[in-house]
Amino acid sequence: MKKTITPKPGIMDIELYVGGKAYAKGATNVVKLSSNENPLGPSPAAREAYRDQSDFLAVYPSSDHSDLRKAIADTYGLKADQILCGNGSDEIITFLCQAFAGEGDEVLFTEHGFGMYRICALGAGATPVEVLEDERVTNVDALISGCTENTKLIFVANPNNPTGTFVSLSEIERLADGIPQSTILVLDGAYAEYVDGYDGGASLVESRKNVVMTRTFSKVYGLGGLRIGWGYASVEVIDILTRLRGPFNINRAALAAASAAVLDEGYISYCLADNAKWADFLMNELRKLGFECDDTYANFVLARFANEEEADAVNDVLAENGLIVRQVKGYNLHNCLRITVGKGGDCSRVITVLKMFKEDQA
Ligand SMILES: Cc1ncc(COP(=O)(O)O)c(C=O)c1O
What we know:
By secondary structure, the protein is of the alpha/beta class. The protein folds into 2 domains: 11-32 and 266-361, Alpha-Beta Complex (Aspartate Aminotransferase, domain 1), CATH 3.90.1150.10; 44-264, Type I PLP-dependent aspartate aminotransferase-like (Major domain) (Aspartate Aminotransferase, domain 2). Helices cover 38% and strands 15% of the residues. It has 12 helices and 13 strands. The strands form 3 sheets. The protein has a 7-stranded mixed beta sheet with strand order 2-8-7-6-5-3-4, sandwiched between helices. The site of pyridoxal-5'-phosphate has 13 residues, from helix 3.
């Protein structure tokens, strides 16, 4: 008889996910620019809907999420029966790996792909496989040639986190055309709203059974604390994933807040305009100071420094001044820091500290 407690193969290979830090020792006026949250918060309508639910806390939430699915479908022009809601889009990613990848199967993503792809692949007993990017941009040819007969899932975040780069829908279409129809291509659209005119890949889901889109309420909708995401896929795939879903995986306050948030399109336009303005400011000012960054298509900027030591020093001086940004060494980006686009005043604070840093160096 076995005497030790042993998890399934792969589980102990999982390195714990390290989220963005939320504190800076000794600093005052601390602002968190480490998790790509919306600095303006959610729509006032979402807050009100959340508060209203306090009268119904004893009552189980909807199990089929029909109101939220309808609100999403109406806003984005999608089919409600092809939407599946999850406890964050992380949960949809988990369902996809659980449903489609197991021992001997490969889950493919790019070298700076979002950390949950590896964790969920290993959690399902599958093998995570990385392909190179092209200067921090998703390389479609590398994904196509990295796809083997064992590849069950391909994850592509577009825009990508933590790089902030984007590939066109026609490139994504070329990827979908270049892989077997039995391989599922997941288009992670956590930041899709930030790209004007991009549908996150919804049109490809309509035309292909093996394409899945995931979306979240954690970014521009400002509801990261409530944990709500959704997936859009063929009815066949939705039917498979639904079998894994707990009946009450989203609480009633989250459902109500998300429904109100997605219907308040005016508020989202306001947040997107504010983000675009301050993202441009951050990129321009970083470059003026001699720090490199790619054009961002999301609500964060990946700043590149001369080397890891300089990135560490900048991280420290920002933290001393109450500005918490994200180190991305776990993504093999040792000389980079990911800075969430905050409120205008906070973006200015970041640049002021970086100017001081440069002056001290001179
Ligand atoms: C690319 C990407 N996908 C998915 C997620 C997960 O989002 P959530 O589980 O909050 O919906 C994130 C969160 O940072 C992300 O950056």
